[in-house]
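Summary of Year 1 activities. Much of the first year was spent building the evaluation harness for sequence design. The harness presents a backbone, in tokenized form, and records the residue chosen at every position. We chose the following record to illustrate the format because it has been used consistently in internal testing since the harness was completed.
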């Protein structure tokens, strides 16, 4: 069995050894940049960890795991363009360092590079791995579209929001784990269970990300605090908070929330005061804990003995109470 540290080192080594063409520079340099600035590299580590739950041989899972990481970074590049984000992992975003067109094209190339890596999967696993990956890729696009649609909706239900983040965020964690399980020759039941583990971990992860957007430390978080507020995103904080406001308070809240000309710091301060007033932080923390408990139950139900699940449990625990 590999430890969490050993798996992260295998992922880091695979990324460092991943060779990209040199020319044209403005296509490949942004890709090297986004892959090189780190991040948690959670998804490829999950793929390898899931494989290792069922098999001691993880070598064949490395290229599919790397494909997941390349694809994930593609989604970040395009998300940052759509959100007009300045900072990613504490560094300038690609579309700000280069320009929008360069970022779009480099992102497009990353999807092709991801599929090129997937084709190096042994033939016996290729079809199920591609099916999982294709469902992930389409799901992420669907989730992003729902996210954009919410910007023009007056109200968003908690059910709709959870469906959106399941597609936009959780589906990639689920897919990474299921790809790893396939590569480890897991049973269909265990592949389904590891998917449930990933889905609920992903939901908790995103809800906590929503919290960190306003209650996190920018130096640790790696992104500008209040970005969701400035982008007028109706996260679960907004959805839950407005349930507790009077009609007059609602009118005041929406007038500030939808104002794109107001001073950034003042807007963040006003909205945060509303959040604090109804203690929305506690409400979201309860939802985070709920989905973490469902993730833990799915992990417990996996057929291998508990010792083989240690790394997945470690990752789950590391995400609880994270501040980055």
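For this record, the design step produced the sequence shown next.
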């Amino acid at each position: 069995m590999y430890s969490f540290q050993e798996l992260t080192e295998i992922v880091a080594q695979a990324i460092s050894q991943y060779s990209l063409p040199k020319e044209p520079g403005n296509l490949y340099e942004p890709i090297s940049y986004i892959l090189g600035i780190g991040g948690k590299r959670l998804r490829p580590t999950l793929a390898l960890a899931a494989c290792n739950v069922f098999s001691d041989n993880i070598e064949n899972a490395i290229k599919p795991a790397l494909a997941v990481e390349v694809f994930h970074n593609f989604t970040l590049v395009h998300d940052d363009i759509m959100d007009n984000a300045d900072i990613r992992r504490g560094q300038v975003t690609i579309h700000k360092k280069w320009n929008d067109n360069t970022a779009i094209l480099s992102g497009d190339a990353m999807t092709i590079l991801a599929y090129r890596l997937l084709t190096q999967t042994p033939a016996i696993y290729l079809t199920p791995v591609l099916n999982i990956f294709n469902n992930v890729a389409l799901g992420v696009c669907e989730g992003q579209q729902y996210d954009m649609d919410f910007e023009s909706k007056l109200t968003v239900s908690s059910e709709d929001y959870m469906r959106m983040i399941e597609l936009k965020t959780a589906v990639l964690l689920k897919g990474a784990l299921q790809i790893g399980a396939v590569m480890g020759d897991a049973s269909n039941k265990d592949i389904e269970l590891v998917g449930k583990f990933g889905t609920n971990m992903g939901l908790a992860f995103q809800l906590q990300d929503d919290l960190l957007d306003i209650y996190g430390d920018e130096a640790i978080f790696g992104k500008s605090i209040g970005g969701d507020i400035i982008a007028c995103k109706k996260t679960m904080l907004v959805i839950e908070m407005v349930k507790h406001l009077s009609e007059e308070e609602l009118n005041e809240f929406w007038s500030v929330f939808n104002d794109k000309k107001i001073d950034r710091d003042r807007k963040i301060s006003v909205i945060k005061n509303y959040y604090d007033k109804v203690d929305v932080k506690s409400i979201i923390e309860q939802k985070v804990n709920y989905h973490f408990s469902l993730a833990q139950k799915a992990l417990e139900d996996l057929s291998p003995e508990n010792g083989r699940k240690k790394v997945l449990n470690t990752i789950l625990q590391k995400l609880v109470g994270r501040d980055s």
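The chain has one domain: 4-212+285-319. Quantitative recovery figures across the full test set are reported in Table 2.
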